[in-house]
Amino acid sequence: MIIAVDGPAASGKGTIAKALGRHYGLPVLDTGLLYRAVGLSVLKAGGDPDHEADALAACGFDDAILGDSALRSEAVGSLASRVSVHQVVRDALVQRQRDFATQPGGAILDGRDIGTVIAPDADAKIFVTASVHVRAERRYKDALAHGGHPDMDSLIADIQARDTRDMSRDHAPLKLAEGADLLDTSDLTIESAVQRAIALVDAQLEGRPSGVTR
Ligand SMILES: Nc1ncnc2c1ncn2[C@@H]1O[C@H](COP(=O)(O)OP(=O)(O)OP(=O)(O)O)[C@@H](O)[C@H]1O
Ligand SMILES: Nc1ccn([C@@H]2O[C@H](COP(=O)(O)O)[C@@H](O)[C@H]2O)c(=O)n1
After folding, report:
1. By three-state DSSP, how is residue 197 classified?
2. Among the residues of 72-131, which ranges form H helices?
3. ipTM value of the model?
4. pTM value?
């Protein structure tokens, strides 16, 4: 069984994907980490994330970088968004994601193009979203909790810039996949968002109408 979880930055898709993983007993891949690893590798190599050849060269990153806490920063998220516009970068990462998706027993992947490109035939697809303001507030709280000094206006601007780039790029833009259910978490607690996601997945697996517009 493959479950695809897509959505914009800080929508809560990773939280939901992990909870679905625990509920269904499936391994989870946060595919954004792969793009973040490419972005951070370009930075470390002194390259230009907007330059296709520099971004491609960074795709051969050492997997040890996946454990680097620097990957989680908003700055690296922005670099990831810039390298991810290059088709050559997406091509370099696609097989790794498909191998994870098709492992025996099934898998859950979260990202931007899981339901559209990586696993278009996934058994269940959820598109998680939330308002820009709510997403920025979540980042704000995260940064405070980690001892940072976040600025709400910059967080809103970063999220809007990332949304625009991710949704308007030529290759694998972020959009609602065919057959995906929309889950707006703006007014939901984590617990209720997870319960709603489980109900949507169960309904899709059983071929029942989920009660939301597709
Ligand atoms: N429904 C919710 N209510 C409140 N906080 C939430 C909710 N869902 C997620 N969060 C919190 O918001 C933050 C971002 O969530 P998460 O990392 O799951 O988002 P994401 O979409 O995977 O982000 P990324 O852009 O890093 O991929 C986390 O601190 C998480 O605990
Ligand atoms: N399947 C994916 C996943 C991510 N990206 C790009 O990486 C950026 C960082 O992703 P996070 O989920 O960690 O926030 C994101 O803004 C996308 O540009 C992607 O293209 N495809």
Report:
1. helix
2. 74-83, 87-101
3. 0.98
4. 0.96
Report the candidate in 156, 31, 15, 143 with the shortest Cα–Cα distance to residue 84.
31
Q: Structural domain tally of the chain?
A: 1
- Predicted confidence (pLDDT) at residue 213 exceeds the cutoff of 70: no
Contact 12, 119 (CB under 8 A): no
* Residue reference for tokens 């040890």: 64
CB 200 within 8 Å of CB 169: no
Characterize the bridge pairing of strands 2-6 and 28-30: unpaired
CATH code, domain carrying 82 = 3.40.50.300
The verdict on the CB of residue 80 being under 6 Å from ligand 2 is yes
Domain interval for residue 47:
2-206
- Establish whether residue 32 lines the binding site of ligand 2, counting it when its CB lies within 6 angstroms of any ligand atom: yes
- Computed over every residue of the chain, the mean pLDDT equals 96
211 lies in a domain? no
**27 φ/ψ sector (left φ>0, alpha ψ -120 to 50, else beta):** beta
What is the number of the ligand 2 atom nearest to the C-alpha of 82?
18
